[in-house]
Amino acid sequence: MIHVVICDDHAILRRGIRDTLTEAPDITVTAEASGYSELREVLRTAACDVLLLDLNMPGRSGLEVLASLRETHSHIKVLVVSMYPEDQYALRCLKAGAHGYANKAGDPVLLVEAVRVVMQGRKYLTAEVAQMLAESLSAPVVEVPHESLSERELQTLLKIASGKRLTDIAEELMLSPKTVSVYRARVLEKLQLSNNAELTVYAIRNQLV
């Protein structure tokens, strides 16, 4: 039996994923968590072979959680399940230690397949991600400006581009508004932009939102 823990801050989405997985005879969902703090508590007692992890959660980002899990729970195989576009985030997650990347909008049957694949110790890649990976290996390395951003800076960019105010971003990320302002300033400097409007245009042109 494959023991799965789901970490996503949306209760309705967690339930949908749970319902999909429990239909499989070889998979059982042992626990759920709505964020990193709750996840840490859950993993102390719940059996977990595969963790389904959302990227965009309050507090620590999914990529930060990935880094922590590599140190504290290296035996757990992490399958990132996100609404973020594959062409921007799948390879980033795999490099950060994820065993696979699935899109929430995809076929539920594929999610069951993904859990089984990563449980076997293999990487789960959609055809699109596999093609991107092949192209990245053969193509000349061309780094786009936003690849130099830290995870917090990238989160700040995405939320600004989604129309959120700094105070809202601070609340969602559980940071002070002053800290978020620092991240915004760093993003503007690294991308050589001047204001939020330019940040939004940059995010749209680079298909980040």
UniProtKB/TrEMBL annotation:
PROSITE patterns: HTH_LUXR_2, RESPONSE_REGULATORY
InterPro entries: CheY-like_superfamily (IPR011006), NreC/VraR/RcsB-like_REC (IPR058245), Sig_transdc_resp-reg_C-effctor (IPR016032), Sig_transdc_resp-reg_receiver (IPR001789), Tscrpt_reg_LuxR_C (IPR000792), WalR-like (IPR039420)
GO biological process: phosphorelay signal transduction system; regulation of DNA-templated transcription
Keyword DNA-binding: yes
Keyword check for Nuclease: no
Positions of modified residues (4-aspartylphosphate): 54
Domain HTH luxR-type: from-to ranges: 142-207
Response regulatory domain: residues covered: 3-119
Record key words, sorted: DNA-binding, Phosphoprotein, Transcription, Transcription regulation
Domain of life of the organism encoding this protein: Bacteria
GO molecular function, one term: DNA binding
Name listed for the protein in its UniProt record: Response regulator transcription factor
Organism: Comamonas antarctica
Lineage: Bacteria, Pseudomonadati, Pseudomonadota, Betaproteobacteria, Burkholderiales
